[in-house]
Design a protein that fits this description.
It is a single chain. This protein is α+β, with helices and mostly antiparallel strands. The strands form five sheets. It has a seven-stranded antiparallel beta sheet with strand order 3-2-1-7-6-5-4, with helices on both faces. Helix 2 packs antiparallel against helix 4 and helix 14 runs antiparallel to helix 15. The radius of gyration is 51 Å and the shape is rod-shaped.
């Protein structure tokens, strides 16, 4: 190769170099490219051995490929495979070597520069006779750099077959080859990274497809209702995806539900709760309409599904059927607030309704007969029945005077927190036979007195004990049930009929005058007195009625005690028997 005066030798070398460079580019992997580099240096450039030390991600260099023309009896340079040298040692070695263009030549007398951690193999060979002869300890290195100037690795060649140190032509050929090798290694690394990236992407896509399939199956086949709601755009709030369980729960086909939103399905009384819950992740118990026109109690659990780049994307809602639990809760609440025998509100519920109607502020009447001061009142909420209808009384919807706030009169903070606006309850004026007012609430002006108020009618059955003693408790219970039915039919829509216990009943009638209260008492008496047929027997009971009045500023005990006193006054006037001391009996009822 050093017979540079002969052009045909150079031409043959160029052809060989072209072939080995083609082999470099034909390699399909990084390992194949590295092996092509060392084989090309041996077969195309006239060296007996070559090795490539490749830069690892941590910066150190590892011997990644070796090739020897004839295998040495002691293993040759192949023993270097896998050995690692530090980057600092390699940089120092390249720095102290002679610079032959881009090549680095390390003569044998500078072997001290080779650090102990740099892989090195020195083979057998003749010692030099002339100055340009190759010494077995000589080293020729070709650093390979990327297009950005980063070190990719070092190609080391050894033992030129000519036995001479390479001349200018061989050096130039080695420089050209190392440049092509660095390009091939860079391309191979890029291909390897692309293959790894594609493999990762395929793995991620497989995992994504598996995750999507798992989500689809979990969504579609969940035993509870599931829905996906849009959070943005024109379809904001619309149900974009629902499962079969939700369709069955609401009795609506999938195509219909996907054209609606939860706002279209929710009960009007639960709309505000839905809006608060839909704005964030959370849960709410509310009612959704069914296809049959009824409402279904459900528990909504919302989870916001967010995209890493775009933020919240949609709302995933779990819809659980809680109809049975709600029905049980309502039944328990009804049992706690209603008499088990008659189904009427019990004493605790009666007092609760009075407490919601009355406030601590004493009654004030203005010159025109209007209430001058109305205080904020406690909310009028009542436990819902088994069908979710939140009512405070036993009459038709829309006629309940306890159902909610009517209007306020401006007394905002006088009483304290926890009260909503209400119509102030005032005891109506009482007039004598000549039309003079016997009892008039305090008036700041001197105008007309208040004519209507909240009447409390205390009812005590006469002759009930004899029925119990003569016919037994079953007959007595049947009488109480019939009395409760007759009282409920005799009152106005919106009035409350409650059973205190035993044979005592109380009626609350709001917005009623004194004459109307007397008429109501007459109707109640007329409803109870007619005989009733129990177990084939005609039975009759009487009733003693006392009409009291409730006004804001009065305690519940005071209200019930006043009505009880009036009932006893009537019982005495008719000559009825009074059981026990009146004070003890009144105290028992009031408590």
């Amino acid at each position: 190769m050093e017979a540079e005066s002969e052009p045909y030798v150079r031409l043959a070398t160029l052809r060989t170099l072209h072939r080995v460079v083609a082999d470099l580019n034909a390699a399909r992997s990084l390992a194949g490219t590295l092996q092509a580099v060392v084989e090309g240096a041996v077969h195309g450039l006239g060296f007996d051995a070559a090795a490539v030390s490749l830069v690892r991600p941590d910066g150190d260099l590892v011997v990644a490929a070796v090739w020897e023309l004839e295998e040495s009896p002691m293993g040759g340079p192949s023993v270097l495979l896998g050995q690692v040298g530090s980057r600092e040692s390699w940089e120092r070695l390249l720095g102290v070597s002679d610079h032959w263009g881009t090549l680095r030549f390390l003569p044998y007398d500078r072997g001290w520069a080779v650090a102990s951690d740099i892989p090195r193999w020195i083979g057998d060979g003749p010692l030099p006779v002339y100055a340009n002869d190759w010494h077995p300890a000589d080293g020729l290195l070709a650093p390979m750099y990327s297009a950005g100037g980063d070190l990719l690795g070092v190609l080391s060649v050894d033992r030129p077959r000519s036995g001479k140190r390479p001349g200018a032509w061989t050096r130039e050929a080695l420089e050209m080859f190392s440049l092509q090798a660095s390009i091939a290694i860079g391309n191979a690394r890029l291909r390897a990274e692309m293959q790894r990236a594609l493999a990762r992407l395929e793995k991620e896509q497989q995992a994504l497809r598996a995750s999507e399939e798992s989500f689809r199956q979990a969504f579609e086949y969940a035993p509870s209702g599931m829905a996906i709601t849009e959070l943005h755009g024109a379809g904001r709030g619309q149900l974009t995806r629902v499962n079969d369980a939700l369709c069955r729960l609401l009795g609506r086909p999938r195509a219909v539900l996907r054209q609606q939103s939860f706002a279209d399905l929710v009960h009007p009384e639960d709309r505000a709760l839905l809006e608060r819950t839909s704005a964030e992740s959370g849960r709410a118990e509310l009612r959704l309409s069914r296809r049959d026109g009824g409402y279904q109690w459900v528990c909504l659990r919302n989870s916001i599904v967010a995209d890493a780049a775009e933020g919240p994307s949609f709302l995933l809602t779990h819809v659980e059927d809680i109809e049975e639990r709600k029905r049980h809760e309502f039944q328990l609440a009804h049992r706690a607030s209603h008499d088990a025998l008659t189904g009427l509100p019990n004493g605790a519920e009666l007092k609760a309704r009075l407490a919601r109607r009355l406030c601590p502020q004493p009654q004030l009447v203005g010159a025109a007969g209007q209430v001058e001061a109305a205080c904020p009142q406690q909310p009028y909420g009542y436990p819902a029945d088994a069908h979710g209808a939140h009512r405070a009384y036993d009459g038709p919807a829309g006629t309940d005077p306890y159902a909610g706030p009517v209007h306020g009169y401006g007394l905002s903070e006088a009483i304290g927190p926890g009260y909503g606006e209400h119509v102030h309850a005032v005891v109506p004026a009482e007039y004598g036979p000549g039309g003079e007012a016997w009892s008039v609430p305090f008036r700041s002006g001197g105008g007309a007195a208040v004519e209507k108020g909240l009447a409390v009618l205390f009812c005590d059955l006469d002759g009930f004990k004899s029925i119990n003693d003569r016919f037994g408790h079953n007959a007595g219970d049947a009488v109480l049930v019939e009395v409760a039915r007759r009282l409920s039919q005799a009152v106005r829509d919106g009035d409350t009929v409650a059973r205190l216990g035993g044979d005592e009943f109380v009626v609350l009638a709001d917005g009623i005058g004194r004459e109307e209260a007397k008429d109501l008492a007459h109707r109640l008496r007329g409803a109870i007195i007619p005989p009733m047929r129990i177990d084939g027997r005609a039975m009759r009971v009487g009733v003693s009625l006392g009409v009291g009045w409730a006004g804001c500023g009065m305690s519940i005990e005071e209200v019930l005690h006043t009505a009880d006193e009036r009932m006893y006054d009537e019982k005495r006037a008719r000559g009825g028997a009074v059981r026990g001391a009146r004070g003890d009996r009144s105290h028992r009822r009031a408590g």
